[in-house]
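USER: For my understanding, would you kindly supply a protein sequence with its C-alpha cells?

ASSISTANT:
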Amino acid sequence: MSIGTIYTHDPNPRSTAILAVAKAQGVKLDVIIHDKKNEKSHDQLLRVNPLGQVPVFVAANGYILTECVPIALYITSLSDTTTLLGSSRRDYYDILKWMSLANYDLLPAIGALILPLIGDRPQVRKNTEDCLQALYTDCRTLNNQLSKTMYLIGDNLTLADLFTVGTMVHGVMVFHKLWDTRYPRMMEWFHEIYEMPMFKEVAGDLHLLDMPLPFPTPPEEI
C-alpha cells in the first residue's frame, strides 16, 4: 500500500535519492511526473504547492511536505532499521549540513552553468563567474572531506552521500574530464555511489558527454 504521492520532474536531481531510498527500504510511493508546459499538470501541482516547485510529497492522510531535504529525511526515517541517518545526533546534523550544501549551493551552480548549454534558462541570480567559483569551491570541499573519510559521514554510507551524488549527476556528465583530474577522490566516491544498485536502478545509466567546456579552467588553488 502506498504511503503517499511524490510530485517530481523526470529527471530531477533533487528527487533521485528520495526515490532510491524509498525503493530500497520497501516504501511504496506513487509518482506523478510534473510537466511544466502542460497547464493541467501545472494546475495539479499548484494545488499542493502554490510555489509550483518539485519535489512535493503528499501523504495518504493528506499531509503535505515541500522542499527536497525534509522530504528525503522524512522518507528515510520511515524505516526503523535504517542506518542512512547516522548513529548519533552529530551524524544527523552533519548529514543535514552536506545535503544543504548540495541543494542550496552546488546544484544551483551546476544548473546555472549547464542549462544555458541546452537552451534552458536557469532560475538563479548568480553570474557565470560566481557560479564557477562556487562550483569549484564546493568540489574542492567534497574532495578534501573524502580524502579523509570513505563517505561524507565517516566510514558508513548515509543519506548525505546519496542525495549529494544525485545533485551532481549533470555536472559530472559535462565536467567529468576536468573533475577526474582536479578532484579524483570526489569522482571515485561519486562513481561508487552511482553504481550502487539502489541508486542506479532509479538514476539509470550515466551518460558522459564529450564536449568542450565554454568556461575558463580554474587555477590550481581553486
The radius of gyration is 17 Å.
